[in-house]
């Protein structure tokens, strides 16, 4: 800069000539909004009654969720029903904030190439999910979803799932000591139920097939919240509300 | 008042070798990132395009596409421009070793992204998918870059920090803050971790990061490039110094608040949603301040737009910046967001920014730099052809995405006379989008083809320079 003096240039002398000060102020400028928006969310916890009825994913569901994350399901499916009639009619109850209390990482998604999944738990039976993952067009003609045959071939690694569950426990997810002491056994118990249910539909899977864990996760989605909302509405109705 | 970037010192004082490195990496990763984009665009029009290979499914390739274009293409473009312009603006050579650690470290991170994301190794945080060991590597490389950057400022031979430097500085510092806060996680295995935040808090942190990756990785450094290369290419000083001060401080202060507009109608507290919307709408002012300052730099020289393809790239780039920073605030209004969110409209919006603003500014800068780093561009006609391929490509991309987005948004919410959903089967709506997906594929393919033409042109340019028969590099102005 050949010419940096002159009238009205006080800010050049005080700021644009001073690199360190400029750097500090530019960080201060972004710190304000960050602190105001983020810090309240860090410091305010849910009230205990808000979390009543909301429990962490079981070990098998955690393993299924790891698969959901791995395959990038969230890139086409949201888990976030908005409070619009068009969405509650299509999907079910709108999503409350506390329902995600044990979602790490969150899976709200940002795009609906396929439908929302937050209330998919219990909507279809296990066999439907199996057929759908093997060939989406067998259950949903016209679907553009890829086929996922490898989920019936690849196995859940018990050590890997144990690492996930114990890490979530270390972050505060409440698990029974008996579950933490033998995560594979807890997975096995739930997986056997899914295997038996699929067998009744003439579908043969092993308890440690990835598809079993993924189905367990999908069948869990949104159920705690839905049960809680239904209970609250029943209670309100019982008191004679309109 | 002088607002023109200062003139260069004699060439040998500067490390242009590192600029050449980043330049070539920009071209290479640009083509790769756009190619992956075209592949996943094809998959939405014709699902078997994943060939039944797990690693090539949409869910695994989309993060590779976004990371490649944001951090590999746009990132290397920014580093190219920063190493070229900072040395000249500061009249100080960058540190040779730090520059090379930065370059090879960054390329290593990109390669490790390409080797992990297709295997499903991801944190599932949009634009921050890379697993925790790579996050650590990013932190180290970023510190090296920051040391190199601030050391140039410390050793500078000029008193004044030119406008572009403010925007670069905000980029270096804010990206560091965003990356570290968003990446805080507890490792479970070498390739998997769980964030220290959960649920809506995790979503808020991620979208505070995600939106400000747009702000401080794809906006402020590109405004810095605009403030350096636009006056150089136009041979005119920046329109207004005062405007640049006002819009800089307003932009960095306001942008950081805008993240919650990604979570409207969610379980996030209402006040956070409202604040996010309000600040997003306010952002029109500083965004357009930057656009006007860039466009008006061409005042008195608009006739050169007819003949100079570099100016065409820059002016169209700045115009797309103006359009997408108008569209973004509109989409942050709750009622509009209710329709637009989750639809292809959002995809169209981000691509008018990425292809229109980041892409066109990068191309203009590369074409301006090539003769100064090697020799006269091999084929000037191809530069104009690339400009038209890119411009038409963007239109063929964004218009169908906008139309397809509004279509699906309206169909999702349509009720019939009996008060029932008019399209209760979601897949019926999906089927209606196929023509839009095909048009978008063609637009993307055209844009990619333009980039391939550019790469070919640069290969021949470098061969010309190596051949020695071509004229010597154009002296830096």
Note the beta-strand portion of chain B.
under 5%
Could you name the ranges of chain A where pLDDT drops below 50 across 5 or more consecutive residues? 1-7
Looking at CATH, the homologous superfamily of chain B is Cytochrome c oxidase-like, subunit I domain
Largest sheet of chain A: none
Q: What does the largest sheet of chain B look like?
A: 2 strands, antiparallel
Q: Name the pair of protein chains with the most residues at their interface, and give those residue counts.
A: A-B, 83 and 100 residues
CATH architecture of chain B: Up-down Bundle
Count of DSSP H/I helices of chain A: 12
Number of helices of chain B: 16
Considering the protein shown, what is the CATH homologous superfamily of the largest domain in chain A? Cytochrome c-like domain
Helix content of chain A: 40-55%
User: What is the count of distinct domains of chain B?
Assistant: 1
Can you offer a commentary on this structure?
The complex is a heterodimer of chains A (242) and B (477). With 242 residues, chain A is mainly α. Chain A folds into two domains: 10-43, no CATH class; 56-238, Orthogonal Bundle (Cytochrome Bc1 Complex, Chain D, domain 2). Chain A is built from twelve helices and no strands. Chain A has helices at residues 10-16, 19-43, 48-51, 59-70, 85-90, 126-134, 136-139, 158-170, 177-181, 183-199, 210-220, 223-238. The radius of gyration of chain A is 25 Å and the shape is globular. By secondary structure, chain B is mainly α. Chain B has one domain: Up-down Bundle (Cytochrome C Oxidase, Chain A). Chain B is built from 16 helices and two strands. Chain B has helices spanning 16-45, 58-90, 96-116, 132-154, 163-183, 199-216, 220-234, 241-255, 270-282, 284-295, 309-331, 334-340, 344-373, 380-413, 426-432, 434-467; strands at 185-187, 193-195. Chain B has a two-stranded antiparallel sheet. In chain B, helix 2 runs antiparallel to helix 3 (96-116). Chain B is globular, with a radius of gyration of 22 Å. At the A-B interface, helix 1, helix 2, helix 4, helix 5 and helix 8 of A face helix 2, helix 4, helix 5, strand 2 and helix 6 of B.
């Amino acid at each position: 800069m050949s010419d940096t003096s002159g009238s009205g240039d006080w800010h050049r002398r005080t700021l644009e000539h001073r690199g360190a000060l400029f750097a500090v102020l530019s960080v201060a400028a972004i710190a304000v909004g960050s602190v105001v928006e983020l810090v309240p969310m860090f410091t305010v916890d849910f009230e205990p009654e808000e979390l009543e009825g909301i429990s962490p994913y079981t070990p098998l569901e955690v393993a299924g969720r790891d698969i959901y994350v791995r395959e990038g399901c969230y890139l086409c499916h949201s888990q976030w029903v908005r409070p619009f009639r068009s969405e509650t009619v299509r999907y079910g109850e709108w999503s409350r904030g506390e329902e995600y209390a044990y979602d790490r990482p969150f899976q709200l998604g940002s795009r609906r190439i396929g439908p929302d999944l937050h209330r998919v738990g219990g909507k279809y039976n296990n066999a439907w999910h199996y057929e759908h993952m093997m060939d989406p067009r067998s259950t949903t003609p016209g679907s553009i979803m890829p086929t996922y045959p490898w989920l019936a071939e690849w196995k859940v690694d018990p050590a890997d799932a144990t690492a996930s569950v114990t890490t979530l426990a270390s972050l505060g997810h409440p698990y029974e000591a008996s579950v933490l002491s033998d995560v594979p056994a807890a997975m096995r118990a739930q997986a056997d139920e899914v295997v038996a249910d699929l067998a009744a539909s003439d579908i043969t899977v092993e308890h440690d097939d990835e598809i079993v864990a993924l189905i367990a996760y999908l069948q869990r989605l949104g159920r705690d919240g839905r049960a809680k909302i239904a209970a609250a509405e029943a209670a309100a109705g019982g008191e004679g509300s309109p | 008042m002088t607002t023109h970037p200062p003139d260069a010192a004699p060439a040998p004082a500067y490390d242009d070798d590192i600029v050449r490195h980043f330049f070539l990496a920009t071209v290479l990763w640009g083509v790769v990132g756009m190619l992956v984009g075209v592949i996943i665009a094809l998959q939405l029009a014709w699902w078997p395009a994943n060939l039944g290979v797990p690693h090539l499914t949409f869910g695994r390739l989309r993060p590779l596409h976004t990371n490649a274009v944001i951090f590999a293409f746009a990132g290397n473009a920014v580093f190219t421009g920063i190493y070229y312009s900072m040395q000249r603006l500061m009249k100080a050579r960058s540190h040779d070793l730090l520059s090379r650690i930065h370059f090879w470290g960054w390329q290593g991170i990109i390669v490790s992204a390409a080797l992990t994301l297709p295997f499903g190794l991801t944190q599932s945080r949009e634009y921050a998918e890379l697993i925790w060991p790579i996050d650590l590597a990013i932190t180290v490389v970023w510190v090296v870059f920051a040391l190199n950057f601030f050391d140039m400022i410390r050793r500078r031979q000029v008193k004044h920090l030119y406008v572009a430097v403010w925007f670069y500085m905000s980029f270096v510092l804010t990206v560091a803050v965003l990356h570290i806060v968003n990446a805080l996680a507890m490792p479970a295995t070498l390739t998997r971790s769980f964030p220290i935040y959960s649920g809506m808090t995790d979503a808020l942190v991620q979208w505070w990061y995600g939106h400000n990756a747009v702000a401080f990785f794809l906006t402020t450094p590109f405004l810095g490039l605009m403030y350096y290369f636009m006056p150089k290419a136009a041979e005119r000083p920046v329109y207004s110094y005062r405007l640049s001060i006002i819009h800089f401080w307003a932009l960095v202060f306001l942008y950081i608040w805008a993240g919650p507009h990604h979570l409207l109608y969610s379980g996030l507290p209402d006040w956070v949603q409202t604040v996010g919307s309000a600040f997003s709408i306010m952002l029109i002012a500083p965004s357009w301040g930057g656009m006007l300052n860039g466009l008006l730099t061409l005042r008195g020289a608009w006739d050169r737009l007819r003949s100079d393809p570099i100016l065409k790239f820059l002016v169209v780039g700045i115009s797309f910046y103006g359009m997408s920073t108008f569209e973004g605030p509109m989409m942050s209004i709750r009622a509009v967001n209710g329709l637009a969110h989750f639809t292809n409209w959002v995809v169209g919006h981000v691509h008018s920014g990425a292809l229109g603003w980041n892409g066109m500014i990068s191309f203009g800068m590369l074409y301006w730099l090539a003769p100064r780093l090697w020799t006269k561009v091999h084929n000037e006609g191809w530069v104009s052809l690339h400009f038209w391929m890119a411009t038409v490509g963007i239109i063929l991309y964004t218009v169908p995405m906008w139309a397809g987005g509004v279509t699906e948004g309206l169909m999702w919410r349509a009720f019939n006379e009996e008060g029932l959903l008019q399209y209760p089967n979601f897949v019926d709506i999906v089927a209606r989008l196929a023509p839009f997906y095909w048009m978008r594929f063609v637009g993307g393919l055209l844009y990619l083809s333009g980039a391939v033409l550019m790469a070919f042109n640069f290969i021949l340019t470098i061969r010309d320079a190596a051949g020695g028969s071509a004229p010597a590099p154009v002296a830096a102005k």
